[in-house]
Give the backbone structure.
Amino acid sequence: MGNAHGDNLFPLMSAAVLTVSDRCSAGTAVDTAGPAAAALLRQSGAQVVWTGLVPDEAAVIAERLVDLCRDGIDLVLTVGGTGFGPRDVTPEATRGVLEREAPGLAEAMRLGSSASTRRAFLSRAVVGVRGCTLIVNLPGSEGAARENLQAILDLLPHAVAMLRGAAHSHLDSPRPAPTGSGEQRG
Amino acid sequence: MGNAHGDNLFPLMSAAVLTVSDRCSAGTAVDTAGPAAAALLRQSGAQVVWTGLVPDEAAVIAERLVDLCRDGIDLVLTVGGTGFGPRDVTPEATRGVLEREAPGLAEAMRLGSSASTRRAFLSRAVVGVRGCTLIVNLPGSEGAARENLQAILDLLPHAVAMLRGAAHSHLDSPRPAPTGSGEQRG
Amino acid sequence: MGNAHGDNLFPLMSAAVLTVSDRCSAGTAVDTAGPAAAALLRQSGAQVVWTGLVPDEAAVIAERLVDLCRDGIDLVLTVGGTGFGPRDVTPEATRGVLEREAPGLAEAMRLGSSASTRRAFLSRAVVGVRGCTLIVNLPGSEGAARENLQAILDLLPHAVAMLRGAAHSHLDSPRPAPTGSGEQRG
């Protein structure tokens, strides 16, 4: 899908979309949420370099996430398994592989989506970093996945730029960074 | 207490209310917050099958929570011990027995209550799941307990339905669920 | 700096400000965010009894936090290292020494600051308690540090009073506390 808006929020950003669903991975249901999230990313200019499906098994989810992070992908979206169902374990699997959590992005997803539906607060999604990869949990329904992603889409380019080691991590990056970076510490 | 409104938000939902307070359990103060929370649940149609009192001791709180979850109660509310006092350890005791956290419900409680008082942000409450039981921490004052519970009361029936293994965990449940559920995975 | 407003939000409250920055601690950049946070505290009547600088090293940050808490300081602000940069580890170092988390204050900082800039949600700040000390992570830019602190400044006096063992931890403290406190439990 091309970029209908002509803007490119994510220059050269690589992304993967991992759908987590017993039924979709068994072929008894069709995944529409994963493709919807991938389409949103492509519209923003990101390169979706991988998509895949796994069942709601914590060990399988974690292994796949570790592999994707090892490949150096900038952004991995998981789709599904964030609710209260007995098999919903995506947040636990994700937290197990995260090195640094980013709770503000999870808060922003729920808060933003709650404008559409109060049930947004039932998402147990977590967001965080492993290596140089940002991992974001999205809910498993197409509408909720789309709304949650849209709620933070504008913030992802800066997060990814910081992950790549952009000169500073200040929140108000419009201010000029101090000179003198690049020092070595023993 | 009957259901004054004639609506039943929680059909057949069982609930317990565990008040956590040194003074109330020692009999030197009267617990009004626990009964207020129980009354709100009954008004919504839930069956409050157990209420009790424990002191602010993490091990005692945790043991009681484990027992209540083992009994298969749908919803356990704790009341008290969510603040900054030296003996306020309910969130720590709760987190220790949770298998899956639900941070969005804790966020929704604080956000909703903050409309009444900014001090709502001082609640350290956690929410989450152990087994098939949803555990929710409420603050220990009657007013705050009521406001925090009211802030998420509408969301609890769907959370409990999902915990029981309702067909799907999608956030926008009005949409028809895909057919073909019930597959077995080896 | 004196108290220009004549009000004293923090009677007798002691505070420390720990700036976390490779560049500032190496002398290749000037710390303006730490002094800005300290100035805000002094304007509110707090006694800033210590300020210091450490590099973005988790072990060094943690050691300094432990020392400050051992000294019985009421409030420790860290400034910097809350973003997504490869060296941003202040939240992880802080969480490692916290005994009790206070997620509501972190949520309130991000929510309050987001009125100025959406990038407030990129702060990975945590807040919590070790011993009788409240530790608050602030972002490393002067503007963001100031906005985040201002977003919770009104809540800190009550949090510190509770930490000191004020009679009760109720969220709506204007209500009279029940009589009969001071009982001993065996």
Q: What stands out?
A: The first helix of chain C runs from residue 22 to 26.
